[in-house]
């Protein structure tokens, strides 16, 4: 949406005055007749002002997301620099970073454990750590829970649902959320805190504004997840 310069309001005609009885009736008629136009112009400028505010908000959200993605890409590059080759059957802690023997990209362990499937083919346990645009996944129900480093296009067109945040995130872990169908106002999306704070509060977050896109970053046990 582009910003719109508010339409100027026309000046009202000369107001009637009891000091001039001979012109009072004519001026009063003209003044009252102009009020309808004034009302319409006020409504127009109010709509334009609101739309400009929404546009400014969306631009701010987009800029924040871009900054967060740049920070995440930098963090991924740092993490990937110390990655080791994945070893089949080895046990990895949550957050461990390895590189795939198939596509040679770095992957971070989402759930502690071991396995014999290369990270490039195991999206349940491993999340690719590649600088650049995030890979978005469209969902219509709780991923139970969300995987750190993932980006979710949440489709609530049929029904509201909850996205439960990871239970044991590491500092600086990110989860991205976006309104897939522009229906968050009709069918709210709830961000389940999963026993951790969100913005320092022990409360779930309910999103009820259409077309919202946001990034949550885990800070620490006190602050929990924060909007970045």
Can you walk through the features of this model?
With 228 residues, the protein is α/β, with parallel strands linked by helices. The chain has a domain at 134-228: Sandwich (Jelly Rolls), CATH 2.60.120. It contains 1 helix and 14 strands. The strands form 4 sheets. A 5-stranded mixed beta sheet has the order 7-8-10-13-14, with helices on one face. A 4-stranded mixed beta sheet has the order 1-3-4-6, with helices on one face. It has a 3-stranded mixed beta sheet with strand order 9-11-12, with no helix packed on it. The longest helix has 61 residues, at 21-81.
| Strand residue content | 15-25%
Write down how many β-strands occur, each being a DSSP E stretch of 2 or more residues. 14
Instruction: Give the class from helix and strand content and strand pairing.
Output: alpha/beta
Strand/helix succession: HEEEEEEEEEEEEEE
CATH architecture of the domain at 134-228: Sandwich
Tell me, what's the shape? elongated
What is the average per-residue confidence, as pLDDT, rounded to a whole number?
Answer: 87
Radius of gyration: 27 Å
So what's the CATH class of the domain at 134-228?
Mainly Beta
| Largest sheet report | 5 strands, mixed
- Count of separate DSSP helical elements: 1
Compact summary:
The protein contains 1 helix and 14 strands.
Key features of this structure:
228 residues, Jelly Rolls, 4-stranded mixed beta sheet, 5-stranded mixed beta sheet, single chain, alpha/beta, 27% helix
Task: Explain the layout of strands and helices.
Blueprint: H1 21-81, E1 84-85, E2 91-92, E3 97-99, E4 106-109, E5 113-114, E6 126-128, E7 136-139, E8 151-154, E9 161-164, E10 174-179, E11 189-192, E12 205-207, E13 213-220, E14 224-227
Parallel strand pairs: 1-3, 7-8, 8-10, 9-11
Antiparallel strand pairs: 2-5, 3-4, 4-6, 10-13, 11-12, 13-14
């Amino acid at each position: 949406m582009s910003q719109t310069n508010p339409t100027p309001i026309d000046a009202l005609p000369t107001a009637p005055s009891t000091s001039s009885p001979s012109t009072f009736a004519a001026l009063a008629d003209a003044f009252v007749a102009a009020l309808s136009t004034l009302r319409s112009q006020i409504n127009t400028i109010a709509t334009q002002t609101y739309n400009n505010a929404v546009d400014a908000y969306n631009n701010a959200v987009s800029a924040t997301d871009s900054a967060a993605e740049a920070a995440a890409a930098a963090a991924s590059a740092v993490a990937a620099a110390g990655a080791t080759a994945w070893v089949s059957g080895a046990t990895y802690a949550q957050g461990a970073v390895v590189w795939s023997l198939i596509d040679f990209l770095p992957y971070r362990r989402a759930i502690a454990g071991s396995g014999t499937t290369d990270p490039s083919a195991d999206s349940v346990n491993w999340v690719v750590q590649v600088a650049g645009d995030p890979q978005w996944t469209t969902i219509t129900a709780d991923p139970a829970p969300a995987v750190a480093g993932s980006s979710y296009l949440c489709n609530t067109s049929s029904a509201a649902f909850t996205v439960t945040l990871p239970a044991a995130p590491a500092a600086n872990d990110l989860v991205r959320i976006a309104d897939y169908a522009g229906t968050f106002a009709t069918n709210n999306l709830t961000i389940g805190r999963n026993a951790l704070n969100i913005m320092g509060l022990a409360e779930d977050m309910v999103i009820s504004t259409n077309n919202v896109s946001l990034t949550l970053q885990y800070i620490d046990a006190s602050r929990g997840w924060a909007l970045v």
